[in-house]
Amino acid sequence: MRYTPKTELDQRVAKLQVLLEKQGIDGVIIVQNADLFYFSGTIQQSHLFVPAEGSPVLLVKKSYARAREESALENIVYLDSLKDIFAALQSYGYSGFKTLGFELDVLPANLYLRYQKLFKPANIVDASPLIRTVRMVKSAYELEIFKDIAKMHTELFSFISDILRAGMSELKLNAMVDAYSREKGHPGYMRVRGFNQDLVNTHIVSGQNTEPSYFWGAVGGKGVGPAFAQGASDKLIGRSEPIFVDAGFALDGYMLDQTRIYCVGKLPDHLVQAYEVACDILGHMKNLAKPGVPCGKLHDLALEIAGASPFSKYFTGYPTPLAFVGHGIGIELDELPVIGHGFETPLEEGMVFALEPKFTFPDGAVGVENTYLVTKDGLETLTVFDEGILYV
Fold first, then answer.
1. Which residue, of 190, 191, 231, 240, has the greatest Cβ tally within 10 A?
2. Coil, helix or strand at residue 221
3. DSSP at 169
């Protein structure tokens, strides 16, 4: 178990303060768990005030004792009622706000209206792009955590090779994988920022269980019913069909993402060929990806290669294709940068993202996904498990 060091928190706050000053924002109030953890080291029920200049203040409702234990910030105070927040901030010399930033991409409307009334006449603006920009480039401390997760990921996918059998249900396999992950320290859930995007730890579908879903991934799946309409179902895993395993592993607040294809028997030729195209796309994207290259160019290259194949209409989801082929990852699964059409953000050393070229057919889903670190020379693969079709 890691506690985020003070030096790490100080560096993150300083980067955010540079952006706040450039935008003319007096400060930002952070309440969302992922952002709280990133800038304070705790997710205890709090308001974190980060001024454009000066030291941040963590105002904690519950649990104050745990926040004191978990966070290395200097200014941590108990806040019994939100109406007392002005007085608490004034005691640290912060008042007269003209512009305050909030996480308007995730803040519920009723809370926004409450804050708007409470902080009147300050102008409330969206600070989410600034927060997510700071989080987009990972530090050496974060990369050490990623390396530890990568080891666990390799063990997890090896475990799947050992236990997978035809005749077991998708739900049975899913439960065994999740139990293994929990025993290794997985917290039991994955964080996403996207609205209404529930997410299972392990996304397992086999054969014809590829029906479209609300889920923004390339592969939906029936799930256990209309209330949780994605992923594994009670379908029994058959022979000579793809078993699609998209598994994340989380540790110390961070996660990696990886997809591999298993099969008991032999895959049909069209699925093998589509898988080879996916691997070809992944290789070409990896070769192109270097600091300075716009993210959108990777997506456009993927579309070009997929479009020249016989399987173009099945790329990134059928019948509704996705507009991206990769995503940033860290504390949340859907961080910046987005590897999608029209995203001009240039790749930068220290970014971590997943690339996931996948094809979804009526009789099965195939593809590959790895998580990468951008280095000065290109991409370093963090998820190094065997990329071939895994016959068991």
1. 231
2. coil
3. B
Domain match, 250 and 173 both? yes
Q: Please tell me the distance from the alpha carbon of residue 8 to that of residue 237, in angstroms, as a whole number.
A: 46
**In the numeric block, which tokens belong to residue 288?**
């192109």
- How many independent structural domains does the chain possess? 2
For 296, residues 6+ apart whose C-beta sits below 8 A from its C-beta are: 339, 340, 341, 342, 343, 344
Average pLDDT of the residues in 11-28:
98
Instruction: Let me know: does 199 contact 340? Beta carbons within 8 Å.
Output: no
Domain end, chosen from 135, 158, 175, is at: 135
Report d(CA 46, CA 58) in Å as an integer: 7
The whole domain housing 174 covers: 137-391
Residue at token pair 């475990």: 159
Looking at the structure, tell me whether residues 14 and 161 fall in a common domain: no
Whether the link from the prior residue into 337 is cis, omega within 30° of 0, is yes
User: Binning pLDDT at 50, 70 and 90, where does residue 312 land?
Assistant: very high
Q: What is the pLDDT of residues 314-337, one digit of tens each?
A: 999 988 898 999 999 999 999 999
Helices (H) and strands (E) in the chain, counts: 10, 17
Distance CA 272, CA 164 (A): 20
Q: In which residue are the tokens 């991934």 written?
A: 217
Average pLDDT, the chain: 96
pLDDT band at residue 174 using 50, 70 and 90 as cut-offs? very high
* Reported pTM: 0.96
Percent of the chain with pLDDT over 90: 95
User: Is 1 a domain residue?
Assistant: no
129 part of a folded domain: yes
Token pair for residue 302? 């993927």
Same domain as 352, residue 218: yes
Q: For residue 11, what is the domain's CATH number?
A: 3.40.350.10
pLDDT at 175: 97
